[in-house]
Design goal:
Elements (H helix, E strand, L loop, with lengths): L8 H14 L7 H20 L7 H11 L8 H4 L2 H8 L7 H11 L3 H4 L8
Helix pairs in contact: 1-2
GO molecular function: core promoter sequence-specific DNA binding
Protein name: DNA-binding protein
Keywords: DNA-binding
C-alpha cells in the first residue's frame, strides 16, 4: 500500500480511481485499510478545496420544511403565530433566540445554520 497526501486535482483524481478499484475490499485486509485511509484523505482534501457555505437561516428552515413536508401552519409551533411565520419566511423579521432553540431541538436544524446573519427585505 502506497498512500500519499492529496495535494492537487491530479492526486485527487488518482485517489478516486483507486477507491473504485478497492470499493469491495473487506475490512481488516490491507486493501480495506488502504480504502479507509484514502476515504479520509479525499474527505479532507475536498473539505479544504471545495468548501460548502451554510445556507442562510431562512433557507435552512425552508429546506427542512421541504424535507419533512411541513407547511407554514406547521411552523407556528416553532416560530409563533402565523403572521410571525410569514414574516420569518419572507425575510421581514429575524429569528429570536427562542425560535432558534425550538428549531434546533425540535426540527434538528443545526444551530450553525440558524445563527448566521442575513439581510431582511424591508
Amino acid at each position: 500500500m502506497t498512500v500519499k497526501p492529496i495535494k492537487n486535482d491530479y492526486d485527487h483524481k488518482m485517489a478516486l480511481s483507486r477507491i473504485e478499484q478497492l470499493f469491495n475490499a473487506e475490512q481488516g485486509t490491507p486493501e480495506g485499510d488502504e480504502l479507509e485511509v484514502l476515504i479520509v484523505l479525499i474527505d479532507y482534501y475536498e473539505e479544504k478545496t471545495f468548501p460548502i457555505d451554510l445556507p442562510d437561516p431562512v433557507e435552512a428552515i425552508k429546506f427542512r420544511m421541504e424535507q419533512q413536508s411541513l407547511t407554514d401552519e406547521d411552523m407556528v409551533m416553532y416560530l409563533g403565530q402565523s403572521s410571525r411565520v410569514s414574516e420569518i419566511l419572507g425575510y421581514k423579521r429575524k429569528l429570536s433566540l427562542n425560535m432558534i432553540r425550538n428549531l434546533t431541538s425540535q426540527l434538528k436544524i443545526p444551530v450553525e445554520s440558524l445563527i448566521s446573519d442575513y439581510k431582511l427585505h424591508v
